[in-house]
Amino acid sequence: MPGALAGVKVLDLSQMWAVPGAGMYLADQGADITKVEPPWGDDARRLVTATPLNGENRHFLLVNRGKRGIVVDITNPEGRGIVYRLIQGVDVLLHNFRPGVAERLGYGYETLRPLNPRLIYVEVTPFGVKGPYADKRAYDLVTQGLTGILSRRRMPDGTPIEAPVWVADCSAPMLIAYGVALALLARERTGRGQKVETSLLAAAIAMQSVEMVRGVEEVNPTSYAVQAMFAPYRCRDGEWLVLVVANNEQWNRMCKVLGIAHVATDPAFSTALARSERSPELGSILKAIFATKPRDEWLELLQAEEVPCAPVLDREEVFTHAQVLENELIVEVDHPRAGRLRLMGVPVRLSETPGALDLPAPAFDQHTDEVLRELGYTADEIRALREKGIVGKQEQ
């Protein structure tokens, strides 16, 4: 069954993770994505934060799945001509040039809009298009610093500790895909394309949205760093569980399971605010109790009373957990070079057009000739472009 975005054509000029990740989400729902890499390849092919899989960068394999890949020197006038031909036939353009770079290279919105008035032009920058940081380079960890994420946890000597996940790089793709969906809907009504803008900075702020609320005159609001009701606890077998008790009903049920009815009725813990304010004391009580039984026994008892809780799994355990697998949140796929893979499935399902994993991430320069032929280039013209280094990979 065709995906919800079947027939939507996307040109992806972006590199690294965040914007290519948006292309992944669109491809999962059926969009036709052509990824353009420079002659030396997307930097994500070489970035090492984990060991490669048979020489393939594992992050690249995820964020570029479902795409065809071509290699074009887009800084060269002839390469620009290829991109312009592509622009005339696509619905969406994705890029993550810094402000001013797209215009300098000939890919600014005002330049491309006359070529295709229905074009949805997605511009994703590190810090936004205005302000003192607008022209600065950045990656996820840099934005963690500017948005206060990096300062949330510190080592004993004060050294900031980064978030254990890529906060902006993994959330920005969702914002981008959301923006594209809105622009496609608006185009159905108006017949016109438009520009969609977001940034890594916006994504990192959005990931903290519920904590980014302040009164205009407020100074240093109270923050409850220790939360006994939103915390992990070690059990008798050395395994950990985590629970979240968000209201009085759940509080009473938890106390029933733990056999501390006298604590449930103690005025010192009668409200969520009181439990937050006295979290160190409450946490000590719970720590001692959870240490008396194995984790799975506690989980069974708590879940029977509908107290929200779960085991604290190592990341490797997630790949084989029944709840994850039965919902196809981790799936197995074949890749021609990396081999059999486990990776994220399609995280959003529509009942009539559920989406699917289609093409694996492209090999470097895999589809260049194929796409050029579709644009009307002859075999001799393609050969000449390769000889001049306009298309095709160049080893560095």
Helix and strand arrangement:
Elements: E1 9-12, H1 18-28, E2 32-37, H2 58-63, E3 67-71, H3 77-88, E4 92-95, H4 101-105, H5 109-112, E5 120-125, H6 140-146, H7 167-190, E6 195-199, H8 200-206, E7 230-234, E8 240-244, H9 248-258, H10 261-264, H11 272-277, H12 279-290, H13 295-304, E9 309-311, H14 315-318, H15 322-326, E10 330-335, E11 339-344, H16 368-374, H17 379-387
Parallel strand pairs: 1-2, 1-4, 2-3, 4-5, 5-6
Antiparallel strand pairs: 7-8, 8-9, 10-11
Helix pairs in contact: 1-7, 7-8
Could you write a compact summary of the structure shown?
The chain has 396 residues and is α/β, with parallel strands linked by helices. 36% of the residues lie in helices and 14% in strands. The two termini are 42 Å apart.
Q: Your description of this structure?
A:
It is a single chain. This protein is α/β, with parallel strands linked by helices and 396 residues long. The protein has 17 helices and 11 strands. The strands form 3 sheets. A 6-stranded parallel beta sheet has the order 3-2-1-4-5-6, with helices on both faces. Helix 1 packs across helix 7 and helix 7 (167-190) crosses helix 8 (200-206). The mean pLDDT is 94.
The tally of strands reads 11
β-strand amount: 5-15%
- What is the SS-derived class? alpha/beta
| Strand numbers in spatial order across the main sheet | 3-2-1-4-5-6
Radius of gyration: 25 Å
Mean pLDDT: 94
